[in-house]
Amino acid sequence: MSDKKTLFSAVQPSGIPTIGNYVGAINNFVKLQDEYNCIYSIADLHCLTVRQDPASLRKATQELLALYIACGVDPEKCIMFVQSHVPQHAELTWILNTMTYPGELNRMTQFKDKSRSHADNVNMGLMDYPVLMASDILLYNTAVVPVGADQKQHIELTRDLAIRFNGRYSDTFVVPEPIFPKHGAKIMSLADPTKKMSKSDENVNAFVSMYDDTDTVIRKFKRAVTDSDTKIYFDPENKPGISNLLTIYSVFSGVSVEDAVKEFEGKGYGDFKIKVGEAVAEGLKPISEKRNSLLKDKAYLDSIMLKGAESAYKIARKTLSKVYRKVGLYSPER
Ligand code: TYM
């Protein structure tokens, strides 16, 4: 690895990623890959915190790797690996668990939300989710973590744990900084623009999936909830629906939000929504094509996964040995 700083991020292979995951995270993975040593994980252990169908989880894991590559993450430049293939993630979680207080995890917004939406399965893993995430990040001497706004609290906990460990056992972990996209750190639901767009939304019209075809994308944007006003301008507080569409349009068309506002001045909502849908569909088409062709070559995807796990393991093993030694775990001479 070069002397560039390290960047780490991950996406859960639960369900089909949405354009929210793309705008908030994966698009930045691609943009930042020359500036940093990038490590991108597929967070399959995190998925187990809610009930999964085992066969679907396995399939989604492979598909997510194909999606990373199809979006432009370069396997020659970046490490891509599956979280469960590197055992140190679970091992460091145990150590960090002994330094994390229930009150810190109880107050996490995501834990509260998911406890409500999965009330029949509020398990220890769901509560411990942010500690596993801290382990993911801290194992790799990570300086920066590109994520969407919903992960802010988890990154803050990661920082707190790194500082706490360093304070107790001397300097060990790099204290990471989050990187949020300039626009689109929180893409909102198309059905209710005051709510985050989420792949687990029961209403399929609330999100656009990365695998939706052109007709579906355009239909979903045509139905997007806006407001009763007729003007198109950027004001997330008072016009959340229109502002969300402007943000999405800007990311997919490459036009700035300001220029998009000028472009649609005097136009009706109907035309505007179709234009946004077309821009997104056009952006997704080559990604879908590349992804489909990658999925035909499972051996290639497996080889990237194996290579990634090997590279990640080398770094993770070093960090964990250091941690074990610092906390006082005995290691016999060989
Ligand atoms: P996940 O799979 O829920 O989300 C993956 C990434 O997508 C971002 N995101 C969004 N961004 C903008 N608008 C939205 N509507 C939207 N929905 C999701 C998320 O912020 C995230 O960046 N816990 C992580 C996965 C993870 C991780 C890590 C991330 C596990 N370990 C270590 C960074 C570092 C998550 O929520 O995944």
Key features of this structure:
mainly alpha; 7% strand; Rossmann fold; binds tryptophanyl-5'AMP; 13 helices; Tyrosyl-Transfer RNA Synthetase
Name of the CATH class of the largest domain: Alpha Beta
| Parts with pLDDT < 50 across at least 5 consecutive residues | none
The largest sheet, given as strand count, sense and whether it forms a barrel, is:
3 strands, parallel
What is the typical, i.e. mean, pLDDT?
A: 96
Number of helices: 13
Distance between the termini: 28 Å
Q: What is the count of distinct domains?
A: 2
Shape: globular
CATH topology of the largest domain: Rossmann fold
CATH-wise, what's the superfamily of the largest domain? Answer: HUPs
The proportion of residues in beta strands is: 5-15%
Architecture per CATH nomenclature, i.e. the level-2 architecture of the largest domain: 3-Layer(aba) Sandwich
Q: For the CA atoms, what is the radius of gyration?
A: 21 Å
Helicity, as a percent range: 40-55%
Which ligands appear in the coordinates? tryptophanyl-5'AMP
Number of DSSP strand runs: 5
Structural class determined from secondary elements: mainly alpha
Order of helices and strands: EHEHHEHHHHEHEHHHHH
The neighbouring-strand order within the major sheet is 1-2-3
